[in-house]
Amino acid sequence: MTSVPSPSTIGSKLTLESPPPSNFGAHLPIAAEGSPQAFGVRFLEGTNMDADVAESKWRPLDVEDRFYEFLAGGCRATMLPAMIDLGLDRMLYERGSMSAPEIVAALALEPTRGKKWVLLLKSIDLLVVAQEGDDTSGPVRYTNGPLPSAMATPGTSNAYFYREFLRYWRVATSYDIVKTLRGAPILHPVRYPPVAWDDTVLLHEWMRSGALQTLKAVRRHFDFSEVRTMLDVGGGDATMACKLASELAELQVTVFNVPQPAYMARQNISTQGLVERVKVVEGDFRKDPLPEGFELVLYSRVLADWPPDICRMLLEKAHNSLLPGGRVMIAEPLRDQNPNLAIAWEHSYLPYDDFGAWVYKPLADYVTMLTEIGFTDIISYPRDEATIHSVIIARKPEAPLAEV
Ligand SMILES: C[S@@+](CC[C@H](N)C(=O)[O-])C[C@H]1O[C@@H](n2cnc3c(N)ncnc32)[C@H](O)[C@@H]1O
Questions:
Q1: CB proximity list for 232: less than 8 A, separation 6 or greater
Q2: Is the CB of 300 under 6 A from ligand 1?
Q3: Which of 99, 220, 273, 310 has a CB 3.0–4.6 Å from the CB of 139, allowing a cystine?
Q4: Closest of 296, 222, 301, 308 to residue 253, by C-alpha
């Protein structure tokens, strides 16, 4: 992922290829309000719309609201990077609050555009009005909204991850979408699993930044002291495995991963003095069998990188690798509970062919797969205030289902 082009090249490309603003709207048909040609009216009559959509009984203004909601999403996606690129988030983090003229002057903005920009940022909550006592005599002062505040606060995993993902997302979405969809070659494809060593390191930096938080969320729903053997499939650089092994004296963990992260995991395990308790098995789960004989098989943030057919195969492999009565656990953001996350990530995967379709799945998809494979006692814990991750746990029956 480090080999992708730098985002600084993106803006100029887009500007050059965009039509001049004066052309904007020139070819759009304008329907008079109330006219039978108006889109919304046809919509309601259901004469020219897909039946499912028409049946949803959206009123014309719902459609119009939705239209602007789409465009406002584009505004948000453009204004956040502009704020970060200009360093306004960090400036406000350091200074606390600033008025619009101070922001304009400090960032050397063209005054009229700068003022409009500040108000736009406020209207999308990237800036909020600073509450500073009762003195309302001076100009309004602004401070970071919650998102830029999180991104500007040094040392937090959110600050690191949001900045990193934004950088990656901007590169992924800078490709010409029509040409991409028609099969244009992608100059700097992101490979998955990573092939270049630097990309493996970067992926695992991303993962390490959130691994212990994720594990904390999982542990609220599962007591790992109930099991003595566990297989952590795609277990990253063994951050989670080492944490669990260091706290649970009875637990033996095996981390399964492709060779580069497996090497990182071995280094990590050795540094933490856990070589007797945490083992590493190298392999590619797309073609290799998983090691067998475990009470628990964990897929933490793994299945959400793969399309349903591969996930089904991986859950079948988990079933095979579990002892009778053993459990499989899936921890990841589910599509139905994180719709915007799913859209943002899958949008970023469009140009990169190593990623399949529909990698984020709703809970129901996993329940169906687990049931069809023969798991029972399926329990799911939805995402909550503390985490985007849901946890699904299912059991392999003590005896094959037919004999139960
Ligand atoms: C998104 S990371 C999650 C890491 C860890 N489970 C966690 O939650 O922090 C996905 C992991 O799956 C591993 N992986 C990807 N493709 C794999 C494959 N074909 N075989 C084995 N492991 C794979 C990656 O190397 C990486 O460690």
A1: 238, 240, 241, 253, 254, 255, 256, 298, 300
A2: yes
A3: 99
A4: 296
CATH architecture assignment, domain 197-403: 3-Layer(aba) Sandwich (3.40)
d(CA 130, CA 148): 14
Distance CA 54, CA 63 (A): 11
What CATH number should be reported for the domain whose range is 56-154? 1.10.10.10
Task: Write down the domain spans for the chain.
Answer: 56-154, 197-403
Q: Per DSSP, what are the bridge partners of residue 253? A: 230, 278
Is the CB–ligand 1 distance for residue 211 below 6 Å?
Answer: yes
DSSP 3-state assignment of 3? coil
Helix axes 60-86, 111-123, angle to 10 degrees: 120
Say what the pLDDT of residue 32 is: 35
Question: Could you tell me the distance, in angstroms and rounded to a whole number, from the CA of residue 214 to the centre of ligand 1?
Answer: 14
- Could you report the per-residue pLDDT of 69-102, keeping only the tens digit for each? 999 999 999 999 999 999 999 999 999 999 999 9
| Segment among 12-21, 42-51, 107-116, 283-292 with least mean pLDDT | 12-21
Q: Is the CB of 354 under 6 A from ligand 1?
A: no
Band the pLDDT of 55: cuts 50, 70, 90.
Answer: low
| Nearest-angstrom CA–CA distance, 185 and 343 | 23
